[in-house]
Amino acid sequence: MKVKILLFGEALNIPKTSVGLGVGLLSVWIDGQGFTSGSNDLGALGYILLETQTVDLGDVTPQKQALFSNLHGRVVKYDIKPEMFFRNGGIAKISLTISEMRGGLLVDEVLQVLAEDCTGVSVVTNALSFSCTMFEMEKAVAESNDEQLVSDDLVETAVNDAPAPADSPDDDTLTAEQPA
Domain extents for the chain? Predict the structure, then answer.
């Protein structure tokens, strides 16, 4: 089984609260079949643009092969623990979990991926943890998984255009530029 993941996400605290609000866009290719989804809860604060290489997991059990080879319409829980990195060389431990009812019990099936030499930017406070319903990609888009999707120029732009940190941890007000 071969797996590739592309994730963009950003989450910030709402000013003057401890409530985090974020957005995440995710694409997953399993054995060349593409699936995509989004989430409004990443489970951590920060910014991430992560593209893994295609990772060969080798042979998996027939049950996992059948379950994970068609994610369309399935709720998948993602746990993603990336290292902090810029541009390339990042490492991320990724788990995909699908829960199924079997004989009146909820059983979790987990597919784990160790992705090395990732491309992108990762500046998150903790591991990401979110669930979303996956949908099959259009065939032409799904077939683009053999090439690097995130260009070096895009990563450089993301790093250079990132917002400057607040002046102090207590600065939780939003300000707009005032005309001179």
Answer: 2-160
